[in-house]
Model the fold of this input.
Amino acid sequence: MNTHTFLASDDEQHYSNQFVANTTNHVRHQEASNSDNFYVGDGNLRSCALRFAKVGDYREAISLLNQILKRHPENAIDYNNRGLIYYQCGERQKAICDYNTAIELNPNLASAYNNRANYYAATGDLAAALDDYDKALDLNPSYARAWINRGITLRDLGRYEEAIDNFEAALLFDQYEGNILAERGRTYHLWGDWNWAIADYRRSLALLPASSKHNDAPGWRLRLQVENWLGELLCS
Done:
């Protein structure tokens, strides 16, 4: 079983952006949630929590979200967001508790199912992970992150053809193309179709950030992985 790495990146939601764990074999996408129904003061606290989380000061970020949750204990979005930070600082049990609470409060919050599925995948419960990715996609069929994550999980199960189908579905939504091509290439690689793998690796390298100074740190880490995978094939 491969070690799972998680990328929390979000260029379209309020509480998000690149909480990064150590990189191993591949990445899964987590997602924070957004709502327009917040008081201004709470929005400022959320912005501060984001800044703390981005620089790795998870304790301060969690402290701020705790304050918000004391005032709004029924807000599923804040539980989901706090779960993301708990996960990134290694407190997985607290993370899963927050994801569960978020889902109990709002059973239609697709990002919470995606994030909980990532937890299940990391703990080796791939069947439970697939169930939650399915729920996320039932709620939001255009949810590219969930398609990517579901594809990675199917690949871990050796279901390569289904994994390819999921990555191709993800490509339909014009998001994360470099990431998707990297994951599809890895699937072809493991499946033994090296020509397709090399083609996808090269296409992904043209799209992934070429410098560690780029603001997409997870994309840079994925680039290093793809370079290693491609090197394996070219040296074979």
Observations:
- The beta strands are 5-8, 19-20, 27-30.
- Residues 1-25, 36-40 have pLDDT under 50 and may be disordered.
